[in-house]
Design a protein that fits this description.
Elements: H1 3-13, E1 20-21, E2 28-33, E3 39-43, E4 48-52, E5 55-59, E6 66-71, E7 76-81, E8 86-90, E9 95-99, E10 106-112, E11 115-120, E12 125-129, E13 132-136, E14 143-149, E15 154-159, E16 163-168, E17 173-180, E18 185-191, E19 196-201, E20 206-209, E21 216-219, E22 227-232, E23 238-243, E24 247-252, E25 258-263, E26 272-275, E27 281-285, E28 291-295, H2 321-329, H3 366-369, H4 377-386, H5 388-391, H6 405-418
Antiparallel strand pairs: 1-28, 2-3, 3-4, 4-5, 6-7, 7-8, 8-9, 10-11, 11-12, 12-13, 14-15, 15-16, 16-17, 18-19, 19-20, 20-21, 22-23, 23-24, 24-25, 26-27, 27-28
Helix pairs in contact: 2-6, 4-6
Bound molecules: heme C.
Residues 329-330, 332-334, 344-346, 351, 356-359, 364-365, 367-368, 375, 380, 384, 395-398 line the site of heme C.
Domain Cytochrome c: 317-419
Pfam families: Cytochrom_C (PF00034), WD40 (PF00400)
WD repeats: 59-99, 99-129, 136-177
C-alpha cells in the first residue's frame, strides 16, 4: 500500500474517499472497469487512460475529446470520440485498429463476441465486424447509447429523439420502439437476468422498464436534470445515477429503494460512473479532471469531491477581459506554463516568436506542423479572426472565432504576458 497517497486523498476528499485517479488534463467523460479491476478513462484531453494501481498509462490515437471507453474481453479496449472514430486497442500488443465511418461524435459502445456497436450523433448505429460496418438507420436524432442483448442477437439503442429501439443484429433491422419517452435519452443500462432496463433522460427522468414490454417497473427521477451517467454493480444489485447538477443517487435494484442520494460535487455535472468488480466501490468523474472513488458502504458520509481551483469557475469580475477570454475559450485545452497537466492542445508557454508546432513531444497535425508559421500578435489575432479551420485547414484545433477585435486584442495582450518565459524558446527544427 502507499500510505502517503491514501492520506493525501483523504485530506482532499474527506474520510470516505479511497483513491483519486489524477493525471488527465480535462474532464473525464467515460469510465469502465474490467473484471480484474483495471480502470479505463475517456477524457476531454483527447487521451484514454488505463490505470493500474492508481498509475496511468496513456493511450493516444484520438484527435479530439474521447467520450466513451468499454472493455471487450481481456485484451481489448474500445473507445469512441469527437473525431467520429471508434478505436479498438489491443492492449497486450499495443496496436490500434481505427474504425472510421461515422459522420458525428461517437457517444456509446457495446461489444458482443466479435461485433462492436457504436452510437453516434450522426443519428446512426454502426455494427462493426471484420473491419466492415453495417449502418442502422431509423432514429430521428443523435444516438447516445447502445447495449447488446440476447447474447448479441439483439441491440438496444437510446437517442436524443426520445426513444429506445430494439434491433435485430443479424438482419440489421429495427424490430420495435421499446420506450417513447418524449425527451432525449442519454444513457441505458440493461440487466437481462433480472429483467430490467434503466434509462436516464435530459428532462431528469430515470426510469426502470421491462426490456420485453417497455412497461414501467420503477421511477427513480429525483427532479435533477439532465441524467448523464448510469452504472450498475456487476452483480446487478445496485444502480448509480449521476446528473448535471452534481448529485449521485444509488438505488438497490431488489425493491428500487434509494440507498444514497448525495451532492458529489459543488459545481457541474457527473459525467461518468462505474463500479469496481465487487460492487463495493464507486468511481465518479465530473469537471475536475480526476476520477474519485468511494466505498459504497460509506457513501452516506461522503463529502463532496473537490472541484479544484478550476480557472473557468473563477468569478469573471476578478479577471481582465483578456484573461477572461483565455479562461473561457482556451484554458480547457491549453496551459500557459506547461506544468498544469495534460490538455488536448499544446502548452502555450513561450508562444510568442515560436514557430508553429514547436512543443517537443506534442502530436501536432501535419497541417500545423508543416505550416512554418511564426506565432506573433498578428498571427494569433488572425487565427481567431478567421478561425483555425480557415487559417490552418486540417488543424486539430476546433472551429472557433472571436468576433470582436477588442476581445482578440485583449486576449493577445494577456497571452503575451502570461506565456512569457525566462528561458529562450526551444529549437523547433528537428
Ligand atoms: C477544444 C480544444 C482547444 C481549444 C478550446 C483551443 N485550442 Fe488551441 N489548440 C488545440 C489543439 C488540439 C492544437 C494543436 C492543433 C494541431 O496540431 O493542428 C492547438 C494549437 C494551438 C496553437 C498553436 C500552438 C503551437 O505550438 O504551434 C495556438 C497558438 C493555440 N492553439 C491557441 C489557442 C487559443 C488562444 C485558444 C483560445 C482562444 C485556443 N487555442 C483554444 C486545441 C484547442
Amino acid at each position: 500500500m502507499r500510505p502517503l497517497g491514501i492520506a493525501l486523498a483523504a485530506a482532499l476528499c474527506g474520510p470516505a474517499a479511497a483513491e483519486t485517479l489524477t493525471g488527465h488534463g480535462g474532464p473525464v467523460m467515460g469510465i469502465d472497469v474490467d473484471a480484474g479491476g483495471q480502470v479505463a478513462t475517456a477524457s476531454f484531453d483527447n487521451s484514454v487512460g488505463l490505470w493500474q494501481e492508481g498509475e496511468p498509462h496513456w493511450l493516444e490515437a484520438h484527435e479530439a475529446a474521447v467520450n466513451v471507453v468499454r472493455f471487450a474481453g481481456d485484451d481489448t479496449l474500445l473507445s469512441g470520440a469527437d473525431d467520429f472514430d471508434v478505436i479498438r486497442w489491443n492492449l497486450p500488443e499495443g496496436t490500434v485498429e481505427r474504425l472510421s465511418g461515422h459522420q458525428g461524435k461517437v457517444m456509446g459502445l457495446s461489444a458482443a463476441g466479435d461485433i462492436i456497436a457504436s452510437a453516434s450523433w450522426d443519428g446512426t448505429v454502426r455494427l462493426w465486424s471484420g473491419g466492415k460496418a453495417r449502418v442502422l438507420t431509423g432514429h430521428d436524432g443523435p444516438v447516445n447509447d447502445v447495449t447488446f442483448a440476447e447474447g448479441g442477437a439483439r441491440l438496444l439503442s437510446a437517442s436524443a429523439d426520445g426513444t429506445v429501439r430494439v434491433w435485430d443484429v443479424a438482419e440489421g433491422t429495427e424490430i420495435r420502439t421499446l420506450v417513447n419517452h418524449g425527451f432525449g435519452i442519454n444513457e441505458i443500462v440493461l440487466d437481462e437476468a433480472a429483467g430490467w432496463l434503466a434509462y436516464g433522460a435530459v428532462d431528469g427522468a430515470t426510469r426502470i422498464v421491462s426490456p420485453e414490454t417497455g412497461e414501467e417497473i420503477a421511477d427513480l427521477s429525483a427532479g435533477r436534470r439532465p441524467i448523464l451517467a448510469l452504472a450498475a454493480t456487476p452483480d446487478g444489485e445496485a444502480l448509480a445515477v449521476g446528473d448535471g447538477e452534481g448529485f449521485i443517487l444509488v438505488a438497490g435494484t431488489a425493491d428500487w429503494s434509494v440507498a444514497h442520494d448525495f451532492r458529489a460535487t459543488q459545481h457541474g455535472p457527473i459525467w461518468a460512473l462505474a463500479f469496481a468488480p465487487d460492487g463495493g466501490t464507486l468511481y465518479a468523474a465530473g469537471l475536475d479532471k480526476a476520477v474519485h472513488t468511494w466505498p459504497l458502504a460509506a457513501l452516506g458520509e461522503a463529502e463532496a469531491m473537490p472541484t479544484g481551483n478550476e480557472s473557468f469557475l473563477r468569478a469573471p469580475e476578478t479577471m481582465s477581459n483578456g484573461e477572461r477570454q483565455f479562461q473561457r475559450k482556451c484554458s480547457i485545452c491549453h496551459t500557459l506554463t506547461g506544468d498544469g497537466g495534460r490538455r488536448a492542445g499544446p502548452p502555450l508557454a513561450g508562444l510568442f516568436g515560436r514557430e508553429a508546432g514547436g512543443v517537443p513531444g506534442y502530436r501536432y497535425s501535419d497541417a500545423l506542423e508543416d505550416s512554418r508559421l511564426l506565432w506573433t500578435a498578428e498571427t494569433i489575432d488572425a487565427l481567431f479572426d478567421v478561425g483555425p479551420d480557415h487559417y490552418l485547414p486540417g488543424t486539430k484545433m476546433p472551429m472557433q472565432r472571436i468576433a470582436r477585435p477588442e476581445d482578440r486584442a485583449d486576449l493577445v495582450d494577456f497571452l503575451a504576458r502570461a506565456t512569457a518565459t525566462d528561458t529562450p524558446p526551444k529549437e523547433t527544427d528537428e
